[in-house]
Design goal:
Elements: E1 2-6, E2 13-18, H1 25-28, E3 37-42, H2 46-57, E4 62-67, H3 76-88, E5 96-101, H4 103-115, E6 121-126, H5 129-135, E7 140-145, E8 148-155, E9 161-164, H6 173-190, H7 192-206, H8 210-230, H9 245-255, H10 262-279, H11 285-297, E10 304-305, H12 310-317, E11 330-335, E12 338-342, H13 347-356, E13 359-360
Parallel strand pairs: 2-9, 3-4, 3-5, 5-6, 10-13
Antiparallel strand pairs: 1-2, 7-8, 11-12
Helix pairs in contact: 3-4, 5-6, 5-8, 6-7, 6-8, 6-10, 7-8, 9-10, 9-12, 10-11, 10-13, 12-13
This protein binds nicotinamide-adenine-dinucleotide (NAD) and glycine (GLY).
The site of nicotinamide-adenine-dinucleotide has 28 residues, from helix 4, helix 5, helix 6 and helix 10.
């Protein structure tokens, strides 16, 4: 097992990464407090992973809420279902929520925890690669709004993160590949040697080799933990974690939530950011080619959807959370391993990129 700490003073917490951790109650029951426990999961995960967690909880008084699957579930209406269940079970401020699932369950449950009685504890048990390397770490919680992805939310850190590698065995192939997009992101924004390592070890990751996965998850979490510790509320460096997300969120919202997986949209978005960086002369075209090659090998989309023209992209991108005083801020690259937040990108090269970037189905 590897443990990475997110260092946030009194709100610091461990991320445990390894096999069989859902059943390792000594790792996470100390973070449950004294009150009731409510497990939130979905219809896909409940039959597979509720049993070991329930068994580990022994005599604990546990409520379980099983939600529908999918990105379309990440709404305020579903958060209300969690609050209803907490109230029906007479849960107080000492209750703890456990999010057992991917980023959808984690974001939603974390948001419900942030708001219930002005904030209760929660634990993340991420079961997708994407959630293990990104969404379960750092305290961003929230739900989607029809007009924009993750537009309603709160910062609320978990008490601990339990990343059980065994859960990745049942993850559909497409979801594994989508998670790899966020793994590649860490190499691109901050860690050139890790990008090199990914080029060498991508096949092992696609084969779900435990050693390769443990290394990739631990390196990703270490980078994310350092960035979050430096800038918890995203007033600066944390924005780098959004490489590809301004374009990606436009794709997700424009295509309807769930049509493109988050990681797929981020992959295309990262390539759009690399292409723009190259057009602006700050990224060598050969490096943009390496990025495209790695994303392609990972089976991720490298073309934007044909149905989103430049005008529609710009309209959707204007809703991005990084917009300040009407100015779009974009994460670009100065090289592999060197992300950069820019607020001064001229609208002309951006429009040219959006018009000329390759389109697929
Ligand atoms: P997800 O939660 O929808 O899970 C993907 C699919 O895999 C679902 O159908 C799920 O039921 C299934 N699944 C999950 N674990 C499984 C397993 N072990 N075996 C079999 N099936 C399994 O999607 P995701 O990619 O985990 O998360 C995407 C969400 O995360 C998006 O809403 C995105 O906005 C959010 N996100 C949040 C942050 C953050 O910092 N909070 C960061 C990145 C992404
Ligand atoms: N996924 C972006 C962040 O956590 O800041």
């Amino acid at each position: 097992m590897q443990t990475v700490t997110v260092d946030l003073g009194p709100r610091s917490y461990p991320i445990h990464i390894g096999s069989g951790l859902l059943a390792e109650s000594s790792l996470w029951t100390p973070h449950l407090g004294n009150g009731q426990v409510m497990l939130v999961t979905n219809t896909v995960l409940a039959p597979r992973y509720l049993a070991p967690v329930h068994a580990a909880l022994g005599d604990w008084r546990v409520e379980t809420l099983i939600l529908p699957d999918g990105e379309a579930t990440k709404t305020l209406a579903t958060a209300e279902r969690i609050w209803d269940a907490l109230l029906a079970a007479r849960c107080g401020r000492d209750a703890t929520l456990i999010a057992l699932g991917g980023g959808v369950i984690g974001d939603l449950t974390g948001f419900a925890a942030a708001c219930y009685q002005r904030g209760i504890d929660f634990i993340q048990m991420p079961t997708t690669l994407l959630a293990q390397v990104d969404s379960s770490v750092g305290g961003k919680t929230g739900v989607n709004h029809p007009r924009g992805k993750n537009m309603i939310g709160a910062f609320h850190q978990p008490r601990c993160v339990i990343a059980d590698l065994d859960t990745l065995r049942t993850l559909p192939e497409r979801e594994l590949r989508a998670g790899l997009a966020e793994v590649i992101k860490y190499g691109l924004i901050a860690d050139a040697p890790f990008f090199d390592w990914l080029e060498t070890n991508l096949d092992a990751l696609l084969d779900r080799d435990s050693r390769a996965l443990t290394h990739a998850i631990a390196v990703s979490c270490r980078t994310k933990a350092a960035i979050v510790a430096a800038d918890e509320r995203e007033s600066g460096v944390r924005a780098l974690l959004n490489l590809g997300h301004t374009f990606g969120h436009a794709i997700e919202t424009g295509m309807g939530y769930g049509a493109w997986l988050h990681g797929e949209a981020v992959a295309t978005g990262m390539l759009m950011a690399a292409d723009l960086s190259a057009r602006l002369g700050q990224l060598a075209p050969a490096e943009a080619d390496r990025i495209q090659a790695l994303l392609t090998r990972a089976g991720l989309p490298v073309q934007a959807p044909a149905s989103l023209d430049a005008g529609r992209f710009l309209e959707l991108m204007a809703v991005d959370k990084k917009v300040q005083a009407g100015q779009l801020r974009l994460v670009l690259l100065r090289g592999i391993g060197q992300g950069e937040l820019r607020a001064d990108v001229d609208s002309r090269p951006l429009r040219v990129l959006l018009e000329q970037f390759p389109r697929g189905p």
